[in-house]
Amino acid sequence: MPGLMIESDGATLFVTEKCNSNCIMCPMSLASRKRGLSIPQSEWLDFVDQIPLDIMHITITGGEPFLEYRNLLPALEKINERFPDAEILILTNGRALSIQRIFDQVAPLLTERYLFAIPIHASYEELHDRITQTPGSFRQSMKAIRKLSGYGARIEIRIVGHQKNASDISRIFHMLSGMDVRFEVVNLVAMEMMGCAASNRNSLWIDYDILAQSAEKGIYYALMHGIDVGLYNFPLCMLPEKLWPLAKLSITLSKVRFYEQCRDCREYNACGGLFYSTFGLNLCHVKPIRREND
Ligand code: SF4
């Protein structure tokens, strides 16, 4: 449900359930996207007022936040006033920002503290648009990336990996490496098995270790081309050891789960574990890493 969540490490404004894409692996359910609830107009600025002034990270997410840009713009103005030093992360597919009229209103509010996390699902239009189930979405997201980059905004790319794009992921890293855009980071994201992702699991699920193997070449290519790469939601036992330094502790503490056998694993304290949703579906077969004296 849209609203404000305040945790010790940051605040998250979940502004709307509405989205202009219809991704097959969306962690939101089809029912919630159809319901399309948003923060009521009267509450946008009140929510910003409720965020403690010492918060250093503010995340704005949806659905697609820029579908609510008329309410978002005054909220961003207020965030800039109240939190001049906080990092602002906006999770967006970027498509609305490809429209010049909207981009022109957003751009003056941006500072170097703004980071846009934009998903790219394939190295070519046809597959990306098949995954978003939205014709034209690849071109619009790419156009927004170029516009934001031209304006000096910081851009993170998120590639959510699954059966439909696993064989293309290395090519996505190649494509991004060849663009004339400076990316803050490219994160490969293992699926959170909720909502549409869970409903479509038979056609989407891929073992995390197979996903990592299929992405490995592209990851090294991007690193060699000066792009920072991160791996989200991968338990360490699903990654080749060489990739462990790229693995992030990306799952919030309230959502992390470990299997009983994880307690025997040498890397238990370093591992980011599994989403409770993936854990609950018993899809990931972890392989505890042996201690040296075992
Ligand atoms: S066995 Fe458990 S603790 Fe060890 S790496 Fe895998 S998921 Fe992490």
Most strands sheet: 8 strands, mixed
Number of separate structural domains? 1
* Tally of contiguous helical segments: 11
Element order, helices and strands?
Answer: EEHHEHEHEHHEHEHHHEEEH
CATH architecture: Alpha-Beta Barrel
Termini Cα gap? 47 Å
Radius of gyration, whole Å: 19 Å
Structural class category: alpha/beta
**What is the CATH C-level name?**
Alpha Beta
So what's the overall shape? globular
The averaged pLDDT comes out at: 95
Task: Identify the strand order in the major beta sheet.
Answer: 1-2-3-4-5-6-7-8
Q: What hetero molecules are in the model?
A: iron/sulfur cluster
Total number of beta strands: 10
CATH superfamily: Aldolase class I
| Beta-strand content bin | 15-25%
CATH topology: TIM Barrel
Low-confidence stretches: none
State the share of residues found in helices, binned by percent. Answer: 25-40%
